[in-house]
Design brief:
245 residues; Carbamate kinase; 11 strands; two-stranded antiparallel ribbon; alpha/beta; nine-stranded mixed sheet
């Protein structure tokens, strides 16, 4: 007998990359590190781990420092970007602490070497952590200035063999205009890469998006503040907006 609904016992994805913006870690204000937002994300990640899904996370740092903003006030761009990368490591450590409170074994790897607080990013070691049931959190972006954490997410997703990038945001998908400004904004349920490019929708920056398109890496943009959303996506429900080939 066939079924049409999602399978709650066999998840759709076995290995996911969760991209969490710094603003999401800052809660509704989008700044600083919000304890409730951290706890919610840790709980959701634990939930999908309990389904047998392997999870890697890339965190942003916009709640602490943005490289572009720093360059606008006179800090040399490369230096400002390195400052932003350090902010992502702060967020990675905060998320690690929240996950471990829920009993989830976690490792933080950083693209910027800092042995006292995080492992250096080594792909094979990260894969071994996943095999042992650990969540791996990547901080430090790509380790290079002029690249966003979206690009880091696209890069790590492909390196780690993730099946999908789940981009956690404050909105419930991709719209044709800013839903905060235009109450008549239309939300898309699914888009192709070409449609997203032609409509100039800001799914990710162009470098990150090109990496995903070239490697046929699907992207789901969804609202992380609805606690069941992450589990629902992993179980195959249509949540947020899917960008695919």
């Amino acid at each position: 007998m066939s079924t049409t609904g999602p399978d709650t016992t066999n998840p759709k994805y076995r290995r996911i990359l969760l991209k969490v913006s710094g603003e999401a870690l800052g809660g509704q204000s989008g700044s600083g590190v919000n304890a409730k937002a951290l706890e919610s994300m840790a709980r959701q990640i634990r939930g999908v781990r309990e389904l047998g899904v392997e999870v890697v996370v890339v965190v942003g740092g916009g709640n602490i420092f943005r490289g572009i903003s720093g360059s606008e006030v006179g800090i040399e761009r490369a230096t400002a970007d390195y400052m932003g990368m350090l902010g992502t490591v702060i967020n990675a450590l905060a998320l690690q602490a929240a996950l471990e409170k829920f009993g989830v074994p976690t490792r933080v790897q950083s693209a910027i070497t800092m042995h006292q607080v995080a492992e250096a990013f080594i792909r094979r070691r990260a894969l071994r952590h996943l095999e042992k049931g650990r969540v791996v959190i990547f901080g430090g972006g790509t380790g290079n200035p002029y690249f966003s954490t979206d690009t880091a997410a696209a890069l790590r997703a492909n390196e780690m063999g993730a099946e999908v990038i789940l981009k956690a945001t404050k909105v419930d998908g991709i719209y044709d205009s800013d839903p905060m400004v235009n109450k008549d904004a239309k939300r898309y349920t699914q888009l192709s890469y070409l449609e997203a490019l032609q409509k100039r929708l800001k799914v990710m920056d162009s470098t990150a998006f090109s990496l995903c398109m070239d490697n046929k890496m699907p992207i789901v943009v969804f609202d992380i503040f609805h606690e069941e959303n992450l589990r629902r996506i992993v179980q195959g429900e249509n949540v947020g907006t899917l960008v695919t080939g």
